[in-house]
Structure formats: C-alpha cells, structure tokens
Amino acid sequence: MREIVLDTETTGFDPFTGDRIVEIGCIELNNHVTTGNTFHVYINPERAMPDEAFQVHGLGDDFLRDKPKFAEIGQQFLDFVADAKLIIHNAAFDMKFLNAELEWMKLPILAMDRAIDTLEIARKRFPGSPASLDALCRRFGIDNSARTLHGALLDSEILAEVYLELIGGRQPGLVLSTRSGDHGAQGGSWRPSPRPVPLPPRISDAEKAAHAAFVETLGENALW
Length: 224
Description:
Layout: E1 2-10, E2 21-30, E3 33-42, H1 51-57, H2 61-64, H3 70-81, E4 85-88, H4 91-104, E5 115-117, H5 118-125, H6 133-140, H7 152-166, H8 205-216
Parallel strand pairs: 1-4, 4-5
Antiparallel strand pairs: 1-2, 2-3
Helix pairs in contact: 5-7, 6-7
C-alpha cells in the first residue's frame, strides 16, 4: 500500500485572496515503511513574501526569485503522488492550496477523500488535548529539535513518524528491511539461545503406552 506524507508552506492562509504555495515536501511510504523516495521543491510564488510568512518559514523574496513557478512543477507533483493516499496534518488547508494551483493550471485536482487527516485522527484519539504537530511530537517522544522554522520536507518527515504512532505505534523490531542485501535475521549473526528451562512433556504416560502397543501391531516390515 503506497501512501504519501505531504506538507506545503504558503505565503498566507487563502489562495483566493492572492496567497500561493512556496514549498512542497513529500515522503513516500510503502506498507507504512519509508522508502527513501521523496519529492521536494521550492516555488516562486510570483508575489512578495509577507513579513509574517518570512518569520515562519525563513523563505525570502531573494531566495525564491529563481525557483520554478508552480506551473513548471505541477505535473511532476501529480506524477509523484499518482493515486496514493495523502497523509496530511490539517488536510483541508493543504488540499485547498494544491487544488487551487492545479485548477489554475487546468490539471486534475485531488479528491478530498484521498486525504487522511492526522489532525482529525489526533483529535479523535486524544479529545481535548493539543493536536499540533509539535504537541504530538512531545506526546510520542519524537525528536523535533530541528524544527526551528516550518519547512515542508522536515515537517513531512516528522509527520510520517507521528502518523505511524497514531495508527498503532512504531514497531521497529517487526519492520522488514527493504535495503538491498539485507535479509533480516537470517542474514545476520543472531541465533536463538537454548531455553533456560525445558518445556514440560505434552504426551501422557497412557498415550506413550498406547503408541507403543500400536507400533507392536505393525510387524517387522512396516514402512516409516
């Protein structure tokens, strides 16, 4: 099962009043395991970056000026996500911006039922508790110390860990590595150790006697 953990950074809160996407970060999961395949791009928003957005993202006009416009990367983005489910924190916000940009390009928009909203999952699991990404990192003991500014790819990496916790918890001992040449325990040095106390016999004396009597009836030429 292929899923894409996704985050966007924008110039503001509403694409229909002139705000645009300035960054997209995506992490690919296969059967809830990160594959290492990512999509990450900074985008020229074709407008000045508001001061408040710069303070949040650290992305200024000079940095974004030579970056591609959304029209130049929109199809690449759609090709990467393909038909995968989209894991997003506060999905309505990101989907609103992505679909506005796609619609302006006359490209297919993303159906809302493709989005799995981790904010909604967190609020259902922990009603009344803070459900921001930082709050969930504190709850699950996930290191987000590098998150001094909002960045789409870093936030996607953190969200991938949060998502796995929300759906049942990370179990690294049960994860099968997909790395080339790594064949799990059979390829390593691990071997099972002897039991400290042998298991008790499961065959009763009566069963042993019945088996011995049956063997006697088979004669000398019995085949085993």
